[in-house]
Design brief:
The complex is a heterotrimer of chains A (503), B (161) and C (321). Chain A is an all-alpha fold and 503 residues long. Chain A has one domain (2-492). Chain A has helices at 2-14, 17-34, 41-52, 57-82, 91-140, 144-161, 166-181, 206-225, 244-266, 273-286, 299-322, 328-339, 348-351, 353-382, 389-407, 411-429, 435-457, 469-492; strands at residues 183-184, 191-192. A two-stranded antiparallel sheet of chain A has the order 1-2. The radius of gyration of chain A is 22 Å and the shape is globular. In chain C, helix 4 crosses helix 11 (296-317). The radius of gyration of chain C is 21 Å and the shape is globular. Classes of the chains: A mainly alpha (503), B mainly alpha (161), C alpha/beta (321). Chains in contact: A-B, A-C, B-C. Chain A: InterPro entries: DUF112_TM (IPR002823).
Chain lengths: 503, 161, 321
């Protein structure tokens, strides 16, 4: 019970008025910077970290936690309202969230994202406090062959969830996979598909591709449609907040998202993207109204947002118990901790318990602050969509290029934004789904690296892929995802409910 | 964005033929790169060329599948896209890159992007929007570049501060 | 927002009052960090910025991030756009030496004006606590039995870790091409694979392994320094085990090509003052970086030696022609 005593002690410190003020300022600043497309929580924290130096340790830790959560929520806000994902983990949110916002349901979308983040953050924080040491042993036992099996599962479930035409879905996926090849190959140091252009050596930035395909591609197709696409964007239709049905449809996806996000986030190579993909696919499968998927289903926002947030807390498991920074965000958090005189590592819980629990309490308070601050603002945010179209789209392009330039001030990056924007336009025009391109770019390189690591360690013996029980379980799940609908049909004689395509 | 369902008429779908052709070209490029990489002599169980080779093969198959569907599904009646407004938006994006390349700075270049996009959506005048956009972007520059040390391209306007 | 705007106002006030800055030797300095915010080079650049400004050595310092390809993109931009400009500097390091060779970068370190080496870290080889390998001698024996059965976890291919693994195997008479090197993109991921026993050994900066070793989860077999290190006095050097490999992953600061001798002199003096300041010592202690300051002809010689040795080993590994 020491755990809870330590945690409540931390919460008491964080609840002092001055510290609440710091949390407030942190969340505000984090949201303001995190809204920029291409600038995710890692970069937001990196940019704002210097501001926290001037405060006392407790205050700066709390402000830091506020910035972190603000940055994450800012990314979701931009995804939902402007279709410009701020980071790779909020790309899935844009799929359904932006459709909702356009149909006047931006309020409920923002609310379910905020509340889902809070629920997921809370559960994951409790998980962090209670089972971190247990789950970390499990996470460490994952080898490259297990990760490869996880990628296979993500590929199969995701490709089953996007698009009705197999050819079109696979075409988009393979375009993404080809883009994923660009750059220096990690295992051999060789440049692939770079044609001697130095800016291509680092590969295609996921957020650049997503912002280009989603925001710029859409701007181009809307402007090209001219008067024909006079679909009026309704800023608010019905309640600005979630109604009864929204609550009913959201709470289960929140929980499921949390249970996908936390353990995968805790794995050293798990990341936050894969749980959002899996959550989206799962919710689409389970949704009672699958036809709504692709037209703004609230489950498609609630689940992935919860997964994203739980994964972010999961990243803290290896960081706090073992001192392993397993993502860009974790690496920057590590830099932040060192600033406060704490050195994450296997001994941290033993040597600095007050700081650890202080941090966990800060995260908790910041998460709550985010909710308090953003729910009343939801009504204001959705008013953004009431801006006349010429200015709204002009503003979207300004912000898209600002975020891209801010993350990497290179004209080649802007050129890529333009080229991929045109690609997005062409795909839309000829009814190819957009999301699989991004999925291919994210998952392709991960799957390749894990497979090659597994085979290098086994000195080329492919049997290693099927020897671990974890990997075998994941393959069985993949097979179910692929052939499940078929089995359903064979057994019941009815066609399995399959959702409409995404665009 | 396809709110009107395409209807099929006689003859193959030319647009999808073009897409199939583009995929075939992409397959060739990726395949050529894989072939180039296979000549590199480092030790590894699976070399850097294995995945590109698989992806190239997949792209080639998809080129074929798209071509087959183009014939089977026939030509589609797609609503005409308007070239004029689209050209404005593209001119905005390309103009921004060109202006930045010539050192015009963030505010002027992005102000032009804003004005051209608004023009594409049928809202003028270009000059008024350019001035308003440049002023807005100047404020953004001050906040992000000076307040947060974010490196945004500076031009004559930005150097005034 | 208050901090932000007061910062902005201050910067504005400073920029419009160029003659009020009599107490600083250099008015304005732009430091290029050829990496994304948060990484080692970025932190180095921002530490320099902090100390130069707080000690009033330079009035106004800006950090510009130009990420990409082991720093070669930032380097190319620096060389092409700031010829003869004494107010621009670039941060770099040993990783750049390898990246220039493997990426066939058109721009090399020969084109900049090196000012000083500032900090550095040494490489270490580690195994999980329950590994049968107890010493460097065991590792050498395992490598001699079958080099491919020994898998090495480290950073990206062609980086410092890979180069050190290559030098190590070459020094014991094994073809470095046979090194079964598994590249990981982040320190956390590679450390997890070592702790989980997925690979035979790990190779990286000592600081990556230090905390785990103190907790008894890892055993550090050896380090790449010339003498034993104060932070790990029990760990033998490679040289003690008879393996003639010494390598330091250093970070440096360099000035633009084509500056005059006086300008170089002034920048060198400013950097030297910074290195000797209390604020810099505190900054290094806080970040856990070792002070490996080296400047002038000694640094130039060291740099030339490193470039030549790296060229050879990358050829041996098969990553360069």
């Amino acid at each position: 019970m020491d755990t809870f005593a330590a945690l409540s002690q931390g919460v008491m410190v964080a609840l002092q008025p001055m510290n609440l003020l710091f949390a407030f300022v942190g969340v505000m600043l984090g949201t303001a910077v995190g809204v920029l497309p291409g600038i995710g929580p890692a970069l937001t924290v990196a940019l704002l970290l210097p501001i926290t130096f001037k405060l006392d340790p407790a205050g700066s830790l709390i402000m830091f936690a506020g910035i972190y959560y603000g940055g994450m929520y800012g990314g979701s806000t931009a995804s939902i309202l402007l279709n410009t994902p701020g980071e790779s983990a909020s790309i899935v949110t844009a799929l359904e969230g932006n459709k909702m916002a356009r149909a006047g349901r931006g309020g409920p979308a923002l609310a379910t994202a905020a509340i889902g983040s809070f629920v997921a953050g809370t559960i994951a924080t409790i998980g962090l406090a209670l089972i971190a040491p247990t789950i970390v042993d499990l996470a460490i036992s994952f080898g490259p062959e297990d990760y490869f099996a996880l990628m296979v599962l993500a590929f199969t479930t995701v490709s089953a969830a996007f698009g009705s035409s197999v050819t079109r879905g696979l075409t988009s996926l393979f375009i993404g996979l080809s883009l994923g090849l660009i750059g220096i190959d990690l295992q051999s140091g060789q440049a692939r598909l770079s044609f001697g252009v130095p800016d291509l050596l680092d590969g295609v930035e996921v957020t650049t591709l997503a912002v280009a395909l989603f925001a710029i591609g859409e701007t181009l197709s809307v402007v090209a449609a001219g008067a024909r696409a006079d679909e009026i964007i309704e800023p608010v239709k019905g309640s600005v907040f979630m109604n009864r049905e929204d609550w009913k449809r959201s709470w289960k996806p929140w929980l499921r998202g949390t249970f996908l996000g936390f353990p995968i986030g805790a794995m050293p190579a798990g990341g936050a993207e894969i749980p959002t993909f899996l959550s989206y696919a799962l919710e689409k499968r389970l949704c009672r109204k699958p036809g709504e998927f692709g037209n703004g289903a609230i489950e498609g926002v609630a689940g992935p947002e919860a997964a994203n947030n739980a994964a972010a807390a999961g990243v803290l498991v290896p960081l706090l118990t073992l001192g392993l920074p397993t993502s860009a965000t974790a690496a920057i958090m590590l830099a932040g901790f060192q600033q406060y005189g704490m050195n994450p590592g296997p001994l941290l819980f033993a040597t600095n318990p007050d700081l650890v629990w202080g941090l966990i309490a800060s995260l908790f308070i910041a998460n709550g602050m985010l909710l308090v601050l953003n729910l009343p603002l939801v009504g204001l945010w959705v008013r953004l969509l009431a801006i006349p179209r010429p200015w709204l789209y002009g503003g979207i392009l300004v912000f898209a290029t600002l975020g891209t330039l801010g993350a990497n001030p290179s004209l080649v990056e802007l050129g890529m934004l333009l080229v991929f924007g045109l690609l997005g336009y062409v795909l839309r025009r000829y009814d190819y789904p957009i999301a699989p391109v991004v999925v291919g770019l994210i998952l392709g390189p991960l799957a390749e690296q894990q497979l090659r690591r597994a085979l290098a360690i086994s000195v080329g013996d492919p049997l290693v892929l099927f020897q671990s029980p974890v990997a075998l379980t994941l393959y069985v799940l993949s097979a179910l995802a692929l052939f499940g609908p078929l089995l359903f049909y064979v057994i019941t004689g009815r066609k399995a409910p399959v959702g409409a395509d995404e665009d | 964005m396809s709110d009107s369902r395409p209807t099929s008429t006689a003859g193959p779908d030319k647009a999808r033929f073009v897409i199939a052709f583009a995929l075939a070209v992409l397959a060739l490029v990726v395949g050529w790169d894989a072939w180039r990489l296979s000549g590199i002599n480092t030790y590894s169980a699976v070399g850097p060329e294995a995945f590109p080779a698989i992806i190239a093969a997949g792209l080639a198959l998809l080129a074929l599948a798209n071509a087959v569907e183009a014939v089977r599904e026939g030509a589609q009646d797609r609503p005409r896209d308007e070239a004029g407004p689209m050209a404005w938006v593209l001119a905005g994006l390309i103009g921004q890159i060109v202006l930045l390349a010539f050192g015009a700075g963030f505010a002027i270049a992005t102000g032009w992007l804003f004005a051209a996009t608004a023009k594409g959506f049928g809202r003028g005048p270009l000059w008024g929007h350019f001035l308003a956009g440049a002023a807005m972007c100047f404020v953004i520059y001050v906040v992000f570049a000076k307040g947060l040390q974010l490196a945004l391209p500076a031009g004559p306007l930005e150097r005034l501060i | 927002m208050k901090h932000l705007f007061s910062g902005a106002l201050l910067a504005t006030a400073v920029a419009v009052a160029p003659f009020g800055a009599a107490f600083a030797e250099i008015n304005e300095l732009k430091i290029i960090a050829p990496a994304a915010p948060g990484g080692g080079w970025d932190q180095t650049a921002r530490s320099i910025q902090h100390v130069l400004q707080s000690d009033k050595l330079v009035e106004n310092v800006q950090v510009l991030n130009v990420p990409g390809a082991g720093g070669t993109i930032g380097l190319a931009q620096f060389v092409n756009s700031s010829k003869g400009d004494p107010n621009v500097m670039i941060v770099g390091g040993y990783v750049m030496v390898g990246a220039i060779i493997t990426n066939r970068s058109p721009v090399t370190l020969a084109e900049v004006t090196p000012i000083a080496r500032l900090t550095g870290e040494y490489e270490a080889i580690a195994v999980p606590a329950n590994s049968p390998l107890k010493s460097l001698a065991d590792l050498v024996a395992a490598l001699k039995a079958d080099p491919q059965k020994v898998s090495w976890a480290g950073g990206s291919a062609g980086g410092t870790d890979h180069i050190t693994a290559g030098l190590f195997t070459k020094a014991i008479g094994i073809d470095p091409r046979k090194v079964n090197y598994i590249a990981f993109s982040g320190g956390g991921e590679s450390l997890a694979s070592i702790l989980g026993g997925k690979v035979t050994v790990g190779i990286s900066s000592l600081s990556e392994y230090d905390a785990q070793a103190k907790a008894g989860k890892l055993r550090i077999l050896g380090v790449s320094s010339a003498e034993r290190l104060p932070e790990a006095p029990d760990v033998p050097t490679f040289k003690e085990a008879g393996i003639d490999v010494e390598i330091q992953n250093w970070r440096m600061i360099a000035a633009a090509p084509g500056i005059t001798a006086e300008q170089k002199q002034e920048l060198s003096q400013t950097i030297e003052k910074m290195v000797k300041s209390k604020a810099w010592t505190e900054m290094l202690a806080q970040k856990g970086w070792a002070n490996t300051y080296l400047s002038g002809a000694a640094f130039d010689a060291q740099l030339a030696k490193d470039i030549a040795a790296t060229q050879t080993i990358l050829k041996d590994i098969g990553l360069a022609q």
